[in-house]
Design goal:
Layout: E1 4-7, H1 11-20, E2 22-27, H2 33-44, E3 48-56, E4 60-65, E5 68-73, E6 77-84
Antiparallel strand pairs: 1-2, 2-6, 3-6, 4-5
């Protein structure tokens, strides 16, 4: 099971990273906090102090096409905010 799907790189997460040493990840919806902590520590070689998780349900979307109204939902997902120990950092741009 792949626990970490991708890191979240947005303006809000960048500000949180610079101010409080916290990083955001989109994770598997069945993963718990201990699994997320172990995955981040093994993948990036850092020590994790705290993990906060949030479950998002998909938004309802609709649009009008020439065949009529099309309704659906966006995908649901789980987000994890990981607080690292003092002095640790993750560089997402190092392997570009």
């Amino acid at each position: 099971m792949k626990i970490i799907n991708k890191p979240l790189i947005t303006e809000k997460m960048t500000a949180l990273t610079e101010g409080q040493n916290r990083y955001g990840f989109r994770v598997d919806s069945n993963a718990n906090k201990l699994q997320i902590k172990e995955a981040v520590e093994s993948m990036y070689g850092v020590s994790v102090e705290n993990v906060n998780t949030m479950n998002y349900k998909g938004k309802s979307k609709s649009r009008y096409t020439k065949t009529g109204w099309v309704e659906g939902r966006t995908n649901k997902f789980k987000k994890a905010i990981v607080t690292l120990a003092e002095g640790d950092a993750i560089d997402f741009y190092s392997n570009i």
